[in-house]
Amino acid sequence: MPQHGAPQQHGATHDAGAMKQQGATTGHAATNEPGAGKGRKTPAHQESATTTKPDVSGQPAGEPKPGANHQAEEHMKGMKGHPPGGKAAISPAAPAAGAANAAPSVPGAGQQNAQANMGAKAKKPDPQQVQQIRSQHASFRAQPKPQQVQAVTFNQNYRIQGSDRWQGQHYQVFRSYHPEWHDQGWYHQHYNRVELIAGGYYFFNAGYWFPAWGYSPSEQYYAYDGPIYSGHHAEPPDKVIADVQGVLQQMGYYKGDVDGLLGPMTREALTAYQADQGLAQTAAIDEPTLDSLGMS
Predict the structure, then answer these.
(1) 192 and 109 co-located in one domain
(2) Residue 154 and residue 182: Cα distance in Å, rounded?
(3) Tens digits of residue pLDDT in 28-87
(4) Assessment of whether the complete model's pTM goes beyond 0.70
(5) CB 182, CB 214: distance < 8 Å
(6) Which spans in 27-107 are helix H?
(7) 225 falls within a domain
(8) Domain check: are 138 and 210 in the same one?
(9) Per-residue model confidence as pLDDT tens digits over 203-228
């Protein structure tokens, strides 16, 4: 993309709610990336991995599992002062205190549940449901929701966090992205398609939509600052986002409204789906993710 200088006096065009979101010290890059803040709430689908719960065998952490592991029972007996043969039968395979999430050493209900969960992660969206959802959104148009999904602000030094670790040509657009600020004349000279989408102008280039920062200072509502892949049909970004939200909602990843905005809840749902599918966790709509969802 062409290089540019910093815009002059553009920061005043954003409302107080948008600026509050950015933070006084972290700036735009911190507020645009899931997980950048230490206090970010863990998505519902990930809470089971981070919250203290009973382990996979159904017993509370640190307690013996009757009938599930003979060595563990002998070990616990030895700890109580009743070792068989006068010595505590300590086995390397016996679960230690605090290892509540360790896999059981013998097949049981815990292993079966773990295998079922792995199967759920590997599942793909149903093609018929995908087509049905897309047909429902044929005339979808997103509306800005600054009170529910706050806008991001322009920062010419912003880079997409973690993109340097995303390998492959499909992620090059994310690695090289940086916001640019130009007027309407510049955008029309360089791109054939510039559209007003959900309160902000976007330009289309090589399969992706990008925020057209500076095109209209009064129309700069963006829930996300970065590329949005639209597939081979070059559909508007709000419709693509709505389609993705609908499918992820159907699969249990997304709990919010289908609003066509790439806000924090949608990005968290994308991250979870990408992790389960073994994709780069971009928290964005990229080509491999849209292909995996059957929407490219």
Answers:
(1) no
(2) 12
(3) 433 444 444 444 444 444 444 444 444 444 444 444 444 444 444 444 444 444 444 444
(4) no
(5) yes
(6) 27-31, 47-50, 70-79
(7) yes
(8) yes
(9) 999 999 999 999 998 999 999 999 99
**CA neighbor of 267 nearest in space, from 291, 286, 293, 250:** 286
Contact in structure between 1 and 180 (CB atoms under 8 Å) = yes
| Same domain as 220, residue 176 | yes
Task: Tell me how many domains the chain contains.
Answer: 2
The C-alpha angle 204, 285, 251, rounded to 5 degrees, equals 140
* In a shared domain, residues 114 and 240: no
Mapping DSSP to helix (H, G, I), strand (E, B) and coil, where does residue 229 land?
A: strand
> What domain range is 100 assigned to?
49-122
Closest CA relative to residue 138, chosen from 247, 239, 237, 231: 239
Looking up tokens 């924090």 gives 264
118: in domain: yes
Alpha helices in the chain (DSSP H): 16-22, 27-31, 47-50, 70-79, 109-122, 127-136, 172-175, 184-190, 237-250, 264-276, 287-292
Of the candidates 101, 103, 99, which has an alpha carbon nearest to the alpha carbon of residue 115?
103
41 and 164 assigned to the same domain: yes
In a domain? residue 8? no
Shared domain for 192 and 244, answered yes or no, is yes
Long-range contacts of 17-22 (CB under 8 A, 24+ apart): 17/146, 17/147, 17/150, 17/151, 18/146, 18/150, 18/151, 18/152, 18/153, 19/153, 20/150, 21/150, 21/151, 21/152, 22/152, 22/153
Q: Which of 70, 95, 122 is the last residue of a domain?
A: 122
Query: Sign of the C-alpha dihedral, residues 233, 154, 37, 148?
Result: negative
- Backbone angles phi and psi of 181, in degrees to 5: -120, 115
- Quote the tokens at residue 259: 């609003």
Last residue of a domain, one of 64, 88, 122: 122
